[in-house]
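Make up an example, fold above all:
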Amino acid sequence: MPQLPSITDQAFDEKVKPCERLQVQGDAPGIAAIIEGLKANHTLTEHQRAVCLDWLSCANWLDQDYEGALELISKALTIAESLKNRRLAARLITHTGQIRSDAGDDGAAIAHFLDALDRFAELNDLEGKRRICDLLAKLYLRMEHVINARMYLQDMLEIDRKTGDRKAEAATLSAIGATHASLDENDEAIRYYEQAQAISKELGDQYGVARELHNIGNAHGAEGDTGRAEKAVRQALDIARELNSDYGLSVCLLSLGRIELHKRRLAEAIELLEESVNILQKMGFWEREAVAKAHLAMARFEKGELLKCLQLADEVLQACSALGKEHAFPVSMAYGVKARCAHTAGRKEDATHFAQKAMDSMGERSRINLSDGNRHSKILKDWLGEVLDA
C-alpha cells in the first residue's frame, strides 16, 4: 500500500481552522469529518496527530462523552510530552480541566487548571495565563467561592494592564465589582464599576458605559439608595434605546421595575416588568425572563392579585423544570411567592411547605450563604419574611 502524502504544518493549520467555528456551533460531526479526512488522506507528523486527537476529543466533549474525550486527550498529551512541546501540553491540560469541569468533577478541574497555569507561567505566556485565570474565576464563581474567584480576577487585571488591553481591563474591573456586589460590599463594587465605566467612556464603548451605569444603579439599590439607583439605571436605559439594544432595554426595565416595587409604586412596577418580560420572551432568554416574571409575580402579590400572581409563579416553575433548572434563583422566588400566597390565605402547612421548597431550590451552598449577605439568598429571606418567622 503506497504511503500517503505528508502535509505541511501551514496547510494542516488551514485544514483544521474551521474546527474552531464548528466548536462554537456545537457541530461535533463536522469536527470529526474534518479530522478523519485529514487522517485518511495524509501521513501526519506526531505533532499533527496530537492536534487531531485533541479535536476528536473536542467532538466527544461536545457530545458529552466525557470518558471518550478524556481518553483521546490523554493520548494527545502523551505525544506532546514525548515531543517536549510544552505549549501544546499546557493547552491539552487546559482542555482536560474544561472537560472535567463540564463532567462535574470540580476538584479535578481545578487541579488541571493549576497545572496548566504553572506551565503557562514557565513559558511567560500571558495570554495562556489569563485564559486559565478566567476559567478558574468562572469555576469558583459557579461554586460560589467568591473570594477565590476574585483572586484570579485580580490576576487577570494585572495581565490586562501589562498587555495594555483596555477593553479587557474594563470587563475585568466590572467582574471584580460583581464579586463585591454579590457579598453586599456595594461601596467597593461601585468603585470598580466606576473605573470600568471610565475606561468604556474613554474607548467610546457605549455598550460598556450602559452596562456599568446599570451595575452602579443596582449597587445603589442594594444599599437602599433608590434615588441614585433610579438615576443611574435610567441613564443606562437611555443609552440602550439609542443603541437599539433589546437586551439592554430588558435588563434596565427589570431593574427599574424592582426599584418601583421597592418604592411600592406597584402599577409602575408592573408596567415595567411586563415590558421586560415581553422583550425577553422574543429574545428567548428564558432565565432572565423567569427572573422578570418572578418579580412581576411579587408585584402582583403586593397589589393583591393573587390569582395572577400564582399563575406567573407556576409559569416560572414549568419553564425552569422543562429546562432542568431546579435550583435556579427564579425557582426559589416562585416558591417564595406561593408560600406568601398560602400564608395570606391562612394555609399554614402549605406556606411552610412552599417556603421549604424555596430554600431547597437555592441549593445547599446558597442556604449556607443566607448569613453572609449573598444577594439572592437575602432577597429570598426578605421576601419570605413572616412565613419564615411563623
